[in-house]
Every structure is written in C-alpha cells, then in structure tokens.
Design goal:
Number of helices of chain A: 16
Strand content of chain A: under 5%
Radius of gyration of chain A: 20 Å
Strand order of the largest sheet of chain A: 1-2
Structural class of chain A: mainly alpha
Order of helices and strands of chain A: HHHHHHEHHHHHEHHHHH
Number of strands of chain A: 2
Shape of chain B: globular
Number of helices of chain B: 10
Largest sheet of chain B: 6 strands, mixed
Number of domains of chain A: 1
Oligomer: heterodimer
Largest sheet of chain A: 2 strands, antiparallel
C-alpha cells in the first residue's frame, strides 16, 4: 500500500506550486493578470509535455488544438444561447465539444503524420496549423475570418454577474484545474506500460518495435491525450476568458514555439518540468517586456541555445540527476 | 517440430541480393551459429526473421505459423527476442526499466503488470550480474555492460527464440567464454533456441553451437553439425579464398 502511494509523491510539489501561485494571485494586489498568464503557460506546457516530452516528437502545429478547442466552446455557447436554463451546464458541454474536436483533429493528423519519423513528422505538422486556419477562413466555417464574438450569449446564459466572474476569475481556475489534471495523467502514464513504451520509443524506435511495442499506437495515445488537454486549455483560457475567437489569433504559431521553450527549459518528459519551465518563462517574459521591451524574443533565442547546449535535459532533468542519491528523489520526477 | 523455418527466403535491396534463396530450420532449444564474412547477409537474414524487413520471396514460419508479413512488434510477443550488433539501450531509462520493458511486452506481456515486470527485471539483473547498476541510466554503462543489459532485456521477454547479432564482438576473450556459457545455460534451462551470428569463426561461439550455417554473399553454403561444417572445404574457401586463387593472382 505504502509503495503504491509513493508513486504519487511527485504530485506533491506540483500541487504545492499551484497552491502558492493561487495564493499569491489572490493576496497580492494587481498580480492576478500575471498569475493568469502563468497558469496558462503551466497548463499549456503540462499538456504539450505529454506528447513532446514523452515521445520526443515535435509538433509545430500544436496550437491548432487550442484553436479548435476555443471554437468548440464558442460553438457550444452560441448554439445554446437560447437555453437559459442550462446555466453552467453550457461550460461543461463546451468543454466536451472542445475535447471531441481536438481529439478528432489529432486523430486525423496523427493517423497520417505519426507514421513519419522525427524531423519528417515536425515538417509535416508545420502545415497543419496554417492549413486549418485557411480552411476556416476560406470555407467560411464558423463565420470564417470575421470570427465569433459571443460575450452577449455568455451573458444571456449565465447572467451578467456570473459571466463576468467566469471571464475574470473562474476561467483561470479552470485552467489551473486542467494543468493539475494534465500532471496527474502524465504521472499515471509514467507509472503504466504506456509510459515505459513511450520512453522506449523516444530513445530508440526501432529497438522498441523489436521489443514488441506497437509504436504507432502509443504515439497516437500520447498525441490524442495531449491534444485533448490543449483543446480544454483553449476552451478555458481563450474562449471563456475572452469570449471571442478570430482565426489569426488562435492559430498563431508563436504559442507553439512558447510551448516548446517551456517544455525544453523545464525538462522534457519530466513531471515537474513544464511547470518550472512555465514559471521561469512566464515571469522572465513579463519582466523583460517591462525592462527591455522588444528584446524578449532575442533573449529567449539565446536562452534556448544555451539550454540545448549545456543542459538538454532541462532544469528538472538536472535536478533529478542531482537528487538521485538523497531523500528528495521520490518527489522529483 | 521446428520452431523457426525459413523457406527459400530472398531479400533484395534494389539490384543487390542480400539474402538469396535461403532455407533452414531450427528446433526448440537448439543452439545454432550463423557464420559469414562481412556483407554475407547475416544481419539482413536476422532482420527478415525479426520482421524489420519483409522478404521479396519465400516464407518464414514460427511454430508452424506463417509470419512472413507479420510486423516486428507482433513477433516479440510470439517469442522472438533479439539483441543488436551495437547495443541499443533506452539510454535515459535505468537498467531496471530497460529490462522491465522486455518483460512488459514480451511473451508474458499480457499477464504481467508494471510491478510484476519490474520484479522479473530484478531477477534477470541478478542473473546477469548487473546488480550494482540496477538504478543507473543505461546510457552510462560501459559497452560490455550495455551488451549484458541488452541480453537481459531480451531474456526478460521470455523468448522461445533468441537472435544474437554479433553478441560477443569487441569483448575480451575471457568475458566471451563466461558469457557464452551463461547464455547457453539459460537457454537450456528455459528451453530457448538461440541463433548466434558471428563474423569470425569464434572458438567460444562456434565450439558450443550444435549446428552451423555458413553464409557467403547472401547464399547458404553450408548447413551442418558444427564438426562437419568446420571441416568443409567451402567454409575454408569462403574465409581464406579458394585454394590456388592467390597463386594465380
């Protein structure tokens, strides 16, 4: 029993970090905006890590899953605006739709692209994001390039007061919950055969196959899981927080790049990594934009090069190596 | 009954015939040596048995089941294990995790959960004498340790057939003797047929093999009990050139 419980110890620092983030946000005036951004980065990194970190495959079209998630919530809210009795139920339906849409897109992309190896996969995914955006604009799906604005509908269903609180507070809390849930799923995967299979295929795909691992199956599992969390992050952080959606904004590739930086910086494939990466990245981006406006991207380019050359395993990867022989080791994963 | 049977297998890469019309069979628990010089088609033959490549012609049977076009990840659970010429550990994982992967997806894979697989790994680690490296990242092992770990990983699959690609290359002769002895004793205990492939006629491997298959330029030139095979003039020719050839040149 005790050893079973021990497997979940690494969740402790994750939860503590989120708790501190929450308490700081609630008790320090004027900081909720920053905390909200950090929560977004944490959840984004945590979700992306399930794919990038665990499989070692880089998906340059990742933001598309946040995009369709945003559209999922938007569609639910606009479509159900007449049913005022639904109340908060509309958010639940919105999340379900976001997950379904992100899952469908990831299955379509994964079924084709995941048969490709490493760099070829990365190249194939670059097109997905742009292609999907132009499909929405060109085929005039979901109002095409004029986007969807659904503040009024949200007000109508939830009532003005509650809608306001959802936008300014509860949306962020939902992002926090999604981040924690993504961490829990990551740990469950790590402790199961899925995690072992993913580690094996990340390290040596051919050897993994010979060992009896159906590599495509496990890559698709990781891809779909990661994508559905991304859909939820989009639905919460983009659709509920700012109830409008325009294709150029939700299919903006720099979010993918940010996700990659966060995961690499913190430690790809580790449980704590995305959280640590998100906090370092988010805080430094915030202060850089105040003190050195315009230079953030330049500085991050340098930071990334330094990380990849000096400690490719990321902050948590290094910590893991250092704590291998002491009592902290069961907390760091 | 034969465990593995190849019937007229041919594998080509463009114009190059890497394996040409090769047939042979191996019985349960047998120790077979495949010998051949560099480029004679040994590794390709392994890749065909293993499902990495599918042959253009011919058939492969395992336990009388046609596996000619069965993907490699489905062959491992049937009982075909393999080690590589250059060890391919899952570098970031520990030795224990590496070996557990073998148990998890091998012939017992369906019955074993993660914890049970880790237990299997611990037994194998003891057996392979890797105890003090149990929790080390596999990438940090020495080449010989990596080799041992890879054999352990394959044994944890509980295979019926173990393919060993140049398993002893680059090892000290004393280590080779020990290792071959250990592998054979495990093979006998667990009734695993072993196909060991070597480039040179190595005393240790060849001496203990019950049967030898000699490949030359993709073709099987000899398939006989070890003593006979070694005395065969074609084997000598394949390794040293035909007698008289050097004089003519």
């Amino acid at each position: 029993m005790n050893s079973k419980l021990k497997k979940y110890y690494p969740l402790l620092p994750v939860c503590v970090a989120y708790l501190i983030l929450f308490l700081v946000g609630r008790n320090v005036t004027g900081i909720w905006q920053l905390v909200s951004t950090l929560l977004f980065y944490c959840a984004l990194g945590q979700a992306f890590n399930i794919f990038l970190g665990m499989t070692g495959y880089v998906d340059f079209g990742y933001v598309a899953f946040l995009g369709v998630g945003t559209y999922g919530m938007a569609t639910a809210v606009t479509g159900l605006a007449g049913y005022e009795g639904l109340g908060v139920g509309v958010i639940v339906i919105g999340f379900a739709l976001a997950v379904i849409m992100a899952t469908l897109l990831s299955m379509a992309v994964g079924a084709v692209a995941l048969r490709l190896r490493g760099a070829y996969f990365a190249i194939a995914t670059i097109g997905v994001n742009e292609g999907f955006r132009y499909l929405i604009e060109g085929a005039n799906l979901w109002n095409g390039s004029s986007g969807m604005i659904f503040t009024a509908e949200l007000n109508q269903i939830l009532g003005r007061d509650l809608a306001g609180r959802v936008m300014t507070f509860w949306a962020d809390i939902l992002v926090l919950i999604i981040g924690v849930a993504a961490a829990v799923v990551t740990l469950l995967y790590m402790n199961s055969k899925i995690g072992y299979a993913l580690t094996a295929l990340r390290e040596d795909e051919d050897a993994a196959k010979v060992m009896g691992i159906h590599v495509t199956k496990f890559k698709i599992i990781a891809f779909i899981t990661s994508a559905s969390f991304a859909g939820m992050v989009g639905a919460a952080s983009w659709a509920l927080k700012t109830p409008y959606v325009f294709p150029p904004e939700v299919f903006e590739i720099h979010y993918t790049i940010e996700a990659i930086i966060i995961v690499m910086l913190g430690g790809a494939g580790t449980l704590m990594g995305p959280l640590v990466g998100a906090l370092i990245y988010g805080v430094s981006k915030y202060y850089l934009s105040i003190f050195l406006p315009g230079f953030q991207l330049f500085i991050f380019a340098l930071v990334i090069i330094v990380i990849i050359v000096l400690f490719p395993e990321g902050v948590v990867g290094v910590l893991k190596g250092k704590t291998r022989n002491n009592r902290l080791k069961q907390l760091i994963l | 009954m034969s465990l593995l049977r190849l019937e007229n297998v041919t594998k080509q890469f463009g114009g190059l015939v890497a394996v040409n019309n090769v047939s042979f069979e191996i019985k349960e628990g047998e120790f077979l040596g495949i010998v051949g010089t560099n480029g004679s088609g040994k590794t390709t033959l392994f890749n065909v048995i293993n499902g990495v490549f599918f042959p253009e012609q011919g058939r492969v049977f395992f336990n009388d089941m046609d596996i000619t076009r069965t993907p490699s990840y489905k062959r491992a659970p049937l009982g075909i294990g393999r080690t590589f010429q250059i060890p391919r550990p899952f570098a970031s994982a520990t030795v224990r995790e590496n070996i557990a992967v073998g148990a998890m997806f091998g012939t017992m894979g369906k019955q074993l959960n993660v914890d049970q697989s880790l237990e299997v790994a611990d037994h194998v680690i003891e057996r392979m004498g890797l105890g003090k490296h149990r929790l080390k990242s596999a990438g940090l092992l020495t080449p010989v340790e990596k080799k041992l770990m890879e054999i352990g990983r394959a044994l944890a699959m509980r295979p019926r057939l173990l393919l060993m690609d140049e398993a002893m290359a680059g090892m000290h002769p004393n280590d080779i003797d020990d290792m071959v002895e250990m592998i054979i004793s495990i093979g006998k205990e667990e009734n695993i047929a072993i196909v060991a492939m070597v480039e040179h006629i190595m005393r240790a491997v060849v001496g203990m093999a019950e049967k030898l298959i000699v490949l030359d330029q993709g073709e099987k030139i000899v398939d006989a009990p070890t003593d006979e095979a070694l005395a065969d003039s074609r084997v000598v020719d394949a390794y040293l050139g035909k007698s008289g050839e050097t004089k003519d040149a």
